[in-house]
């Protein structure tokens, strides 16, 4: 019995997927090469093929820098070939095509971060940190807000720390200002959202952060106690000076009264 086994050098790439977060874009595939190497080619719909990751034994290729027009649709393919060709090898390498990819529509939104927050009385202010992308204009890295502009929306989920009932509010800026109950502790997190997309609309939710009104009350109490102590210290000083002056005046008066009279 004979079993025909296909040489690994003849295997085209498969399971080709794009991994892209905030415009950092990597093409991945299988299998791990044994007797072959890979070369990636990329092109927009109107241009020539450009080679990247030439003769690599890796199963991934960073194509971020080749996608400078974020609204363009790109085509990529992976060539499978022997490191050194011998007589009888086909002129053309086997290749496998990747799915079409449009960065503006297809990159996943990364997990957003809360830059800072403050609860002051009945107002809770939350500021979202603007994520930096690898996309550059005139040498300057662009933020998600600069790229998506008003297409980028943030959702704030917030709730009382003693409750599970969530409320939500949206903004097309990077700041939230919501009404809350004074003296209550609140927990919250945020999520990026692009309503204009048909898919990949939402990012993962950020880490949960919580306010602590106990600390605020303690801080206010600390200042009140400090102010009271300051007033008491001032009063003690004034009283001490007054008593000292009175005592000194009394001693002077007693000295004069007890002094012997001089007769001419």
Automatic annotation (TrEMBL):
A lipid is attached at residue 246 (S-palmitoyl cysteine). One of its GO terms (molecular function) is cytokine receptor activity. GO terms for cellular component: plasma membrane. It is found in: Membrane. Keywords: Blood coagulation, Disulfide bond, Glycoprotein, Hemostasis, Lipoprotein, Membrane, Palmitate, Signal, Transmembrane, Transmembrane helix. Initiates blood coagulation by forming a complex with circulating factor VII or VIIa. The [TF:VIIa] complex activates factors IX or X by specific limited proteolysis. TF plays a role in normal hemostasis by initiating the cell-surface assembly and propagation of the coagulation protease cascade. Belongs to the tissue factor family. Interacts with HSPE; the interaction, inhibited by heparin, promotes the generation of activated factor X and activates coagulation in the presence of activated factor VII. This is Tissue factor. The lineage of its organism: Eukaryota, Metazoa, Chordata, Craniata, Vertebrata. The gene is F3.
């Amino acid at each position: 019995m004979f079993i025909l086994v296909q040489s690994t050098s003849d295997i085209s790439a498969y399971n080709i997927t794009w991994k892209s977060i905030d415009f950092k874009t990597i093409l991945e595939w299988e299998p791990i090469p044994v007797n072959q190497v890979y070369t990636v080619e990329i092109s927009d719909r109107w241009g020539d093929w450009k080679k990247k990751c030439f003769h690599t034994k890796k199963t991934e290729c960073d194509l971020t820098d080749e996608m400078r027009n974020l609204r363009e649709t790109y085509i990529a393919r992976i060539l499978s070939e022997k490191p050194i060709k011998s007589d009888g090898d086909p002129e053309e390498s086997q290749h496998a095509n990747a799915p079409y990819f449009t960065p503006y529509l297809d990159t996943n939104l990364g997990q957003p971060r809360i830059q800072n927050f403050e609860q002051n009385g009945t107002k809770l202010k939350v500021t979202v940190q603007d994520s930096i992308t690898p996309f550059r204009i005139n040498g300057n890295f662009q933020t998600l807000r600069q790229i998506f502009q008003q297409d980028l929306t943030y959702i704030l989920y917030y709730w009382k720390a003693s409750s599970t009932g969530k409320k939500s509010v949206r903004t097309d800026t990077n700041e939230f200002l919501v009404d809350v109950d004074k003296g209550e502790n609140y927990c919250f997190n945020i999520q990026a959202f692009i309503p204009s997309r048909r898919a990949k609309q939402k990012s993962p939710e950020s880490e949960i952060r919580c306010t602590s009104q106990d600390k605020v009350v303690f801080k206010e109490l600390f200042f009140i106690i400090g102010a009271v102590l300051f007033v008491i210290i001032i009063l003690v000083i004034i009283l001490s000076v007054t008593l000292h002056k009175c005592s000194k005046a009394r001693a002077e008066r007693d000295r004069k009264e007890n002094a012997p009279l001089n007769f001419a």
